[in-house]
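Researcher: Let's run the pair from yesterday's discussion. Sequence first, then tokens, for each.
Model: Starting with the first of the pair.
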Amino acid sequence: MILEDDGYYEISPVEVVPGDIVVYSKPPVVISHVALAVSNVPELSDGSSNIRVLSQWGRDGEYFHDYRDVPYWLGTPVKFYSERRKL
């Protein structure tokens, strides 16, 4: 709800640019974690993206990491959001 109120909309992983948001989920919690995208290199042959993010892992500090590489207790990446203006 906060993302929508702030003008964010859902995008695909290949559309992610620095400043976009990655949302994680761990059932039964709808949103368990968020991260800020810092880069996206669509270099993989299967069409997937190499998204790097910055996030805080509880009391463990802030980390730059691959968007899929988080502790299990933070959940898994499920959605990507941007607030860029649509053309």
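Model: Moving on to the second of the pair.
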Amino acid sequence: MGFITEHFLLHTETARYLYKKYASGQPILDYHCHLSPQDVAENRHFGNLFEIWLQGDHYKWRAMRANGVPERYCTGDAEPYQKFLAWAGTVPQTLRNPLYHWAHLELARYFGIDEFLDERTAPAIWQQANERLKDEELSAWGILERFHVEALCTTDDPADSLQYHRQIREAGLATQVFPTFRPDRALRTADPASFNKWVDKLGRSANIEISRFSDFLAALKKRHDDFHQHGCRISDHGLDRCHAEPCSEAEASAAFARVRGGDFLSVETAGRLASYLMLFFGQLDAEKGWTKQLHLGAYRNASMRMLNGHGRDAGFDSIGDWPQVESLGRYLDSLDRAGALPRTIIYNANPSDNYAFAAMAGNFNDGKLAGKIQLGSAWWFLDQKDGMELQLNALSNCGLLSRFVGMVTDSRSFMSYPRHEYFRRVLCNLLGKEVEAGELPDHEELLGTMIRKICYQNAAEYLCLPMAHETAESAAAVAANGHGLSAPRSDGVPARRVEKGS
């Protein structure tokens, strides 16, 4: 018998009641993920447990390498079943790593498997899961329906054609799928050859020949417009830290001309060009009412040997330790002074920055939109119980937890939707514990309303997706009719302890 029980992570009676009634039945708005638009468009059917669970999952690869598993079983040429066996042999060694929680939660929610995964149980689990994967319920579309994903936002390069998003829209999928504008490659000038190859691709996508800096800006704006027409309302940037150095248009133009000609830029010049572009992107977002996401502080590609052998996003990234506050403040202030500060969600990779980021967010709320600047959910290495609690506490102490836009999967895997459940359990456990300690009022309406909003409604109202008003109404309807929220007492839900407020 496994340990993913009904009361998993819920340590008090109040926490269990709050989770069951106000969190568990909420739909999912996954506004930041890395799912493949092609997989969604083609309603991918997964041939085996490796394809849906291990393929592309650098979290698992890191654990396997740490357990002494050779690379051929991670990113190499071993057969899928052999890779799965290598993972199964690693799982028992992941005790107290969040992977142990996630692995067993995912096996339970997708396949109804509650056994411990190890080398002994691996063959039967492989067979049972593969048999279940034949069901339409575990196709890409079936998973989105099963986990009540009302909308998801993929992560897309400005040069992407968006053809799969057009296919999805024409297919009539119940889940709304939107692109996210992520122009990171516009800032990667350190390798002129790679940069110029991408600029050429961008030009073809925008149908603009890019010779001068003005052409470059025009192409980026054209693609920003195209993304908007495809329902995009969110941009995203993955940066070590914000770029906020003063840079005139003439300086930016000269720097672009040099790198376009194949020259290498100094670190300082590249930083000023990036700063100019980041202000340009902020202004585009503000003009269209988009939300900007800033993912800051990851130290990427630490091992050049492994980067050269296996490419990006293969499990060789880490937590960075750069000064963040001054440059982030200058960036937000520059947009604010120009009247062009969009809704912004700030994610930090380093837990030491939680309070600094939470405090910085409070400097730029303007009294017109609740929670305009957000401290984003716990991200990457912090995307686990301890990291989530640290983020929730920093946000609570420096801002308004009640306005938080909640959790995202930030994942390339269709097996990651239980991360929302995991977060909701952590949230309700934190609140339930404080209610029973007398640190929060025993007031169901106050607590339940906040939980429901954090889990779904705040994001639906904040993000301004084309279907945001519809999903907000849907959430209100769910709350009103109780669908999926209340469970009979035979399910083990305790009698209500929290008193209904007036």
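Researcher: Give me one sentence on the second I can quote.
Model: The CA atoms of residues 221 and 399 lie 34 Å apart.
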